[in-house]
């Protein structure tokens, strides 16, 4: 659903709606990011209270009008409104799938589970970005690229209703057998935290949770900036729509495929150093993109950006699962995703303002510098959260933070 519009909407803004200010063009990314962030919080709270499956189904109902609104939009306001609905859809559905996989897999392979989940999602973003770009080049910017979304919504709603099973009882069973870490690291994070305390621990107070939240925000700041800015940067060099689609699909393709391995690696090597290295790799990639002016160098930068994101994305989610108690895990995941997905809005606004005041490349340099700062925060503040039991006979809950 996201991939169908990433290549097309920035070009649609310029060519069909005559928008020229970068900040104004990026309003659709801001609308998506803010509403997705809010929906993440609701998804976490409702999934703990009412169960996971109802939230998943409700989320897909919000997606039904999105592709039709994009096809028929007579003004840019319709595009922004469609992205509000898309943000609600993504917040409810993707948060719920994350929580469900953490429920199902148990403590030892959270990284692998998150890698599989995010690989499926961002692999689909890459394929659809490429397909939408091809359809736009062959048949025009509307309606062909957005017909993909019509079929995706119908398929997802059918699968969610008929094939998906409720997983909340798995979390309850894990909570009943939960044992604290042997090092006493999480003794203050008991099962009775209310929603306000979960928010403060995840956002500010608990070192690993708060470090993950800021790194997630910066990661999606880079994604939000790329969503609104990269197609315009590439088009400024005279690249065709289909070549822009190839470049734009490289980032989520490497990101998606890489997570098949990086999530599992975090189960073996630990979380902290993979996150730090991933943020530094993103900073390097953005510097390459800012310096480049050819298709080959931009492809290299997009590939590096995807690799850095693959190192970070599933590992941050696994970190939240390591630390959060099963009784309030859904809320912690939702709050982490609030901060992470606010990065869409922050990146789009920052990119638009900086590009309007200076130029497109300056905005990319600013994002690179922010990524370096984020890596330093993780390196200094976060501790290693993937805590293995000392003996093979230790109960499974003993490895859970």
Could you explain the architecture of this structure?
The chain has 401 residues and is mostly helical. The chain has a single domain (3-162, 202-399), classed as MFS general substrate transporter like domains (Growth Hormone, Chain: A). The protein is 79% helix and 0% strand. It contains 17 helices and no strands. The protein has helices at 3-6, 9-15, 22-25, 27-50, 52-63, 66-72, 76-105, 110-139, 144-162, 168-176, 195-205, 207-235, 241-269, 272-291, 295-323, 329-357, 360-381. Helix 7 packs antiparallel against helix 8 (110-139). It is globular, with a radius of gyration of 20 Å. The two termini are 34 Å apart. The relative contact order is 0.17. The model is unreliable at 389-401 (pLDDT under 50).
Give the topology, please.
Layout (H helix, E strand, L loop, with lengths): L2 H4 L2 H7 L6 H4 L1 H24 L1 H12 L2 H7 L3 H30 L4 H30 L4 H19 L5 H9 L18 H11 L1 H29 L5 H29 L2 H20 L3 H29 L5 H29 L2 H22 L20
Helix pairs in contact: 4-5, 4-7, 4-16, 5-7, 5-9, 6-7, 6-9, 7-8, 7-10, 7-16, 8-9, 8-13, 8-15, 11-12, 11-16, 12-13, 12-15, 12-16, 12-17, 13-15, 14-15, 14-17, 16-17
Name its key features.
MFS transporter; MFS_Transporters; Growth Hormone, Chain: A; mainly alpha; membrane; disordered C terminus; 401 residues; transmembrane transporter activity; transmembrane helix
Question: Which class best fits the helix and strand makeup?
Answer: mainly alpha
- State which percent range the strand residues make up: under 5%
> What sequence of helices (H) and strands (E) makes up the elements?
HHHHHHHHHHHHHHHHH
Helix content: over 70%
What is the β-strand count? 0
Report Rg.
20 Å
Average pLDDT: 86
How far is it from the N-terminal to the C-terminal residue, by CA? 34 Å
What CATH calls the topology is Growth Hormone, Chain: A
How many distinct folded domains? 1
Helical region count? 17
Which class in CATH terms?
Mainly Alpha
Shape: globular
């Amino acid at each position: 659903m996201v991939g169908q519009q990433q290549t097309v909407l920035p070009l649609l803004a310029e060519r069909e709606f005559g928008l020229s200010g970068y900040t104004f063009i990026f309003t659709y990314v801001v609308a998506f990011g803010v509403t997705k962030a809010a929906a993440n919080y609701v998804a976490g709270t409702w999934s703990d209270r009412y169960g996971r499956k109802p939230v998943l189904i409700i989320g897909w109902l919000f997606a039904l009008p999105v592709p039709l609104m994009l096809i028929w939009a007579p003004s840019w306001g319709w595009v922004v409104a469609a992205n509000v609905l898309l943000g609600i859809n993504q917040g409810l559905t993707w948060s719920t799938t994350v929580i469900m996989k953490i429920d199902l897999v148990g403590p030892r392979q959270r990284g692998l589970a998150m890698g599989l989940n995010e690989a499926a999602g961002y692999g689909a973003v890459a394929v659809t970005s490429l397909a939408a770009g091809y359809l736009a080049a062959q048949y025009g910017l509307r309606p062909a690229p957005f017909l993909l979304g019509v079929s995706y919504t119908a398929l997802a709603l059918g699968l969610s209703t008929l094939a998906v099973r409720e997983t909340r009882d798995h979390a309850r069973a894990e909570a009943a057998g939960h044992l604290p870490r042997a090092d006493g690291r999480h003794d203050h994070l008991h099962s009775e935290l209310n929603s306000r305390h979960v928010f403060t621990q995840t956002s500010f107070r608990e070192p690993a949770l708060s470090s993950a939240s800021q790194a997630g925000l910066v990661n999606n700041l880079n994604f939000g900036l790329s969503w609104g800015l990269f197609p315009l940067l590439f088009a400024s060099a005279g690249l065709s729509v289909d070549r822009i689609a190839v470049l734009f699909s490289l980032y989520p393709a490497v990101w998606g495929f890489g997570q098949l391995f990086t999530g599992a690696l975090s189960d073996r090597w630990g979380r902290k150093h993979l996150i730090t290295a991933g943020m530094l790799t993103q900073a390097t990639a953005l510097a390459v993109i800012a310096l480049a002016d050819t298709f080959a160098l931009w492809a290299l930068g997009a590939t590096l950006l995807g690799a850095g994101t693959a190192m970070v994305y599933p590992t941050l989610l696994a970190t939240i699962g390591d630390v959060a108690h099963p009784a309030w895990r859904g809320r912690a995941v939702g709050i982490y995703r609030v901060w992470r997905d606010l990065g869409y809005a922050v990146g789009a606004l920052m990119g638009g303002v900086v590009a309007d005041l200076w130029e497109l490349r300056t905005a990319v340099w600013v994002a690179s510098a922010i990524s370096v700062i984020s890596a330093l925060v993780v390196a200094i503040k976060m501790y290693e959260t993937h805590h293995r039991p000392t003996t093979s006979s230790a109960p499974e809950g003993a490895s859970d933070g």
